[in-house]
């Protein structure tokens, strides 16, 4: 059974329900809930020895990427990519145009 309850911070009902639940999910709305409010909700649950099983961020904006994992690239990564590209270019067989030169 899934029970949706009131917000954790202003009303104690959620903490009462959480104490008797097998699992607790903390749900926060993107662009609405502040980080300090989410931390405060976790702290209040902790006061009754409840640790959220998972956190859900509702209404977040999806960002399309070319891959599923994006991280900043450093200059070192860029240099390694260039070295790899040069290495691959040297290992390719010569084309007819290159052979004529």
Order of helices and strands: HEHEHH
Note the quaternary state here.
single chain
> Could you give the count of β-strands?
2
User: Order of strands in the sheet with the most strands?
Assistant: 1-2
From the alpha-carbon coordinates, what is the Rg to the nearest angstrom?
26 Å
Indicate the structural class. mainly alpha
Q: What best-fitting shape do the alpha-carbon axes yield?
A: elongated
Distance between the termini: 76 Å
Biggest beta-sheet profile: 2 strands, parallel
Q: How confident overall, as mean pLDDT? A: 79
- Roughly what fraction of the amino acids lie in strands? 5-15%
- The total of helices stands at 4
Name the helicity range. Answer: 40-55%
Flag low-confidence runs.
none
What's the topology here?
Layout: H1 13-20, E1 25-29, H2 35-47, E2 54-58, H3 75-91, H4 96-100
Describe what this molecule looks like in 3D.
The chain is mainly α and 101 residues long. The protein has a domain at 1-61. The protein is built from four helices and two strands; from the N terminus they run αβαβαα. It has helices at 13-20, 35-47, 75-91, 96-100, and strands at residues 25-29, 54-58. The chain has a two-stranded parallel ribbon with strand order 1-2. α2 (35-47) links the parallel β1 (25-29) and β2 (54-58). The longest helix has 17 residues, at 75-91. The mean pLDDT is 79.
């Amino acid at each position: 059974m899934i029970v949706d309850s009131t917000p954790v911070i202003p009303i104690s009902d959620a903490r009462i329900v959480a104490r008797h639940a097998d699992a607790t999910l903390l749900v926060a709305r993107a662009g609405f809930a502040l980080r300090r409010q989410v931390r405060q909700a976790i702290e209040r649950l902790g006061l009754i020895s409840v640790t959220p099983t998972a956190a859900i961020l509702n209404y977040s904006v999806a960002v399309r990427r070319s891959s599923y994992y994006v991280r900043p690239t450093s200059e070192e990564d860029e240099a390694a990519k260039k070295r790899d590209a040069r290495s691959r270019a040297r290992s390719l067989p010569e084309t007819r145009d290159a052979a004529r030169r």
